[in-house]
Amino acid sequence: LSWGLRLVRILRSPEDSNIVCELSHTTLVACRRKFAAFSYVWDDPNFTQPITINDVSFEVTTNLYTALRRLRSENEPRVLWVDAICIDQSNLEERGVQVFRMWAV
C-alpha cells in the first residue's frame, strides 16, 4: 500500500496550553510510526476553535478541538490521522479518493 497520506502530530504540551501540531506527508509503505486514526461526528461549522498546524492558525470544530485536547500528551507527541485535518476538505476529488481508501485498508 503506497498511497499518499497526511499525518498530524500533536506536539507535547501542558493541558492548559494551545494545541500545536505538525502535518507531514508520507505513504503507508514508508510510514514506520504507529498512528491512531479517527473520524468524528461533524459539529456545527459556525463554532470553531483555533489550533496551530505548521505555524499557521487552523480552525477546527469544537468537538474536534475537545478530542485533540484529550488526546495530546504532556510527555510525548501523538501521531494521528484525522479526516478533517489530513484530508483537504475543499478538494472533492481528494475527499472521494481518501474515503475510498479508508474502506480498503
From TrEMBL:
One Pfam family cited in the UniProt record for this chain: HET
The Heterokaryon incompatibility domain, residue ranges: 35-104
Superkingdom as given in the UniProt entry: Eukaryota
Protein known as: Heterokaryon incompatibility protein-domain-containing protein
Organism, as annotated: Clohesyomyces aquaticus
Organismal lineage: Eukaryota, Fungi, Dikarya, Ascomycota, Pezizomycotina
